[in-house]
Amino acid sequence: MTSLAGEIDRRLDVHGFRHQLKPRLAESGVVSNWQLRTWNINRVVVLVDPVSPVNDLARFCQQLKWTVVRHTFFIPAFYEVGLQIVIAADGLKYVWERPSSTNGLLDRVSNQIVVLQSVFAVDTAHQKYRAIRTWGQVVTGRFQDAIEDGICSAGYQGGSDS
């Protein structure tokens, strides 16, 4: 996990993301988190090692986004959070292969608070990953590419669904 966090950190640092320590997020399995805040961008990336097995990616990630946003600076309707989740655990390959587990995974519409823009499911046992991204990410796409580059550099193989 430290190799994965280190590789992601190196790729995000180039874009101005800063690693943050938020101990209260550890209860939800968040082992690392990064944030980029400018006058018009508020993006957060979290790396999660789930505290219990994940059987439904959509349910897990949709619940986690509300936990993360409670510990993140935002202004509703003006300065919402664009969230990218990297979840790393044994056996995720079997979870993402079930279509019902990824239905409703990403947000299609902004709620003006937090928008789940991408999920990177990393199966640590099989050394594979799957990236699921929203379409049309002119700004966030380069950050998602950086996350994916970090995952690949940590030794995982896989690809993206857009």
Give the arrangement of secondary structure elements.
Blueprint: H1 2-13, E1 18-20, E2 30-37, E3 42-48, H2 57-70, E4 81-89, H3 92-96, H4 99-102, E5 114-123, E6 128-133, H5 141-153, E7 157-161
Parallel strand pairs: 3-4, 4-5, 6-7
Antiparallel strand pairs: 1-2, 2-3, 5-6
Helix pairs in contact: 1-5
What is the average of the pLDDT values?
89
What's the multimeric state?
A: single chain
**Overall helicity:** 25-40%
Number of self-contained structural domains: 1
Strand order of the largest sheet: 1-2-3-4-5-6-7
What is the rounded distance between the termini? 25 Å
Tell how many strands the DSSP assignment holds.
7
How much β-strand is present in the residues? 25-35%
Structural class: alpha/beta
Low-confidence stretches: none
Rounded to the nearest angstrom, the radius of gyration is 14 Å
Give the H and E element order: HEEEHEHHEEHE
